[in-house]
Amino acid sequence: MNTTTTHVPTRWERFKSSDFLYYFLRDKVAMFSFAVFLVFVLGALLSPVIAPTNPYDLSSIDIMDSELPPSWMEEGDERFLLGTDDQGRDVLSTILYGSRLSLTIGFLAVGVQLALGIIIGLSAGYFGGRIDSFLMRFADVQLSFSTMMVAIIVSAIFKASFGTEFFSQYAVVMLVVIIGVAEWPQYARTIRASVLAEKKKEYVEAAKVMGFRSPRIMFRHILPNCLSPILVISTVQIANAIMSEAALSFLGLGLPVDQPSLGSLISIGFNYIFSGSWWITAFPGLVLVTLVLVINLLGDWLRDVFNPKIYKG
């Protein structure tokens, strides 16, 4: 008696043979963007190890080193590759630590948006009727205000209510909540549209006939089939969240001076750009623009890959 065993491919084997990897390895822009993004992420994660100095350690900062130009310029100091800021902090170190804060806020804010958007979008699309009308009208009202307007108003209210010291102490948490709450309608509307298309399919009807409850059908059956648009939106929203944090910090409503993010570094340097110390704001600004650009390029590539009407080899 002959017995044949069928080989079940592992997740890694399925990934290596997937269309996703096939298109990725044939798109030079996507590969380059991902490589640059990976460098930023690794640099942010390893900032305590690779940064020349710790900008949070006041004992290592000398005010006499303030506004030194980059090391390759005249009067530059070889200890500071990209120069120093107004407090004598190494600009390269502040960029590395600032990138970590900016990326942390970006990812966590998108997590808040994702949680709110999934729950509200699934509920609106699945139940329909008055629930759908109420939730979508609420989303429309919030969309009528710009993200920055909502963030500025909420930040100003928190600062006025709890004081600047309290806001500075919990600035990261506050920014994550503010940016997350301001952007959830983008997810909710997209997920609702996907749910409206999915809930009419046979597998949903079969789940209802089997007696599964609504939450299980929504999260176990419908949601996995809505992941493609969610992934595309998340990529773009990370870039938007990083820009929102930078804009708020630039306006003085974001992170305090002793917690350097890319936005606060640009804000600090902007006050000195006309005095000749252009490097304080130029290098953090270049890093911010490059980071947002590569994330948006990855988002555009993902949108094309998950769109069945577009072939991109």
TrEMBL record:
Domain ABC transmembrane type-1: 99-299
Keyword Membrane among UniProt keywords: yes
Gene Ontology CC, one term: plasma membrane
GO process annotations (BP): transmembrane transport
Signal peptide: none
Subcellular location: Cell membrane
SUPFAM superfamilies: MetI-like
Listed transmembrane segments: 29-50, 105-129, 141-160, 166-184, 222-243, 278-299
Matching Pfam families: BPD_transp_1 (PF00528), OppC_N (PF12911)
Membrane protein topology class: Multi-pass membrane protein
Protein name: ABC transporter permease subunit
